Amino acid sequence: MAPSKFSELSPTTYADALLGREQFMDMGIREMWPHIPRIAGPAYTVSCAPGDNLMLHAAIYRAEPGSIIVVKAGDIDYAMSGGNVCATAQKRGIVGFVIDGVIRDVAEVRELRFPVFARGAMPIPGKKQGSGSLQSTIICGGVQVDTGDIVVADEEGIAVIPAKQQETIWDMAKRRAEKDATQSLEEWEKNHRAKVERILQEIGFKG
């Protein structure tokens, strides 16, 4: 299955397909420019030391085209990347960045239309001298991410689909999306109201 196919569906649909809460990054990691497109692809994981961005800068030359570089920064005091790094990654076929940390040169990144999800902006760049790792297990936005897991990110949130579950989750999400597409608002409202009233009755709500 082509990883790019996962971009057909929003993280919301994957949530409705019973992908667990533990697979969705916290809301602090958000799109860094308006109307950012949905991205999907296999994760290439990076871990950086506090105040240092060396491993992210190394990753843009090592990750395969079609990858999403997912970064656990050491802090939010120093930028992990700027305009030139994003432009080079884009040129090399990287789909986007998901960073548990901050970036700089947001205007340049917006003009490039390179998708970046991060915690915010900081003008001060990190150094390139510390330790870190590539393609190891990381925690990003509260979610465990391994290289090869499928990342789906848009304005609704960021889902991480474990590599071993990708076909099962895709099938469930696709079926859910197709079911929703065939249901009118009137049908949805009728079913929803009946469900709500049934639950209220079950819990003994009076009102």
Name the CATH homologous superfamily: Ribonuclease E inhibitor RraA/RraA-like
Structural shape: elongated
Task: Give a count of the beta strands, DSSP E runs of length 2 or more.
Answer: 12
CATH class: Alpha Beta
Radius of gyration (CA) equals 19 Å
CATH architecture: 3-Layer(bba) Sandwich
> How much is the average pLDDT?
95
* Helix residue percentage: 25-40%
> Cα distance, first to last residue?
50 Å
What is the H/E order?
HEEHEHEEHEEEEEEEHH
Oligomeric state of this protein: single chain
| Count of helical regions | 6
Number of domains: 1
Spans where pLDDT lies below 50 across 5 or more residues: none
Write the CATH fold name.
Glucose Oxidase, domain 1
User: Major β-sheet, in short?
Assistant: 8 strands, mixed
Residue fraction in strands: 15-25%
Class derived from helix and strand content: alpha/beta
Descriptive account of the structure:
Keywords: Magnesium, Metal-binding. InterPro entries: RraA/RraA-like, RraA/RraA-like_sf. The chain contains 6 helices and 12 strands. It is elongated, with a radius of gyration of 19 Å. It has helices at residues 11-16, 54-59, 83-91, 106-112, 166-181, 185-202, and strands spanning 30-31, 39-48, 68-72, 96-100, 102-103, 116-118, 120-121, 132-134, 138-140, 143-145, 150-154, 157-161. The protein has a single domain, classed as Glucose Oxidase, domain 1. A hairpin with a 2-residue loop joins β9 (138-140) and β10 (143-145). Strands 1, 2, 3, 4, 6, 8, 11 and 12 form an 8-stranded mixed sheet that branches. The chain is of the alpha/beta class.
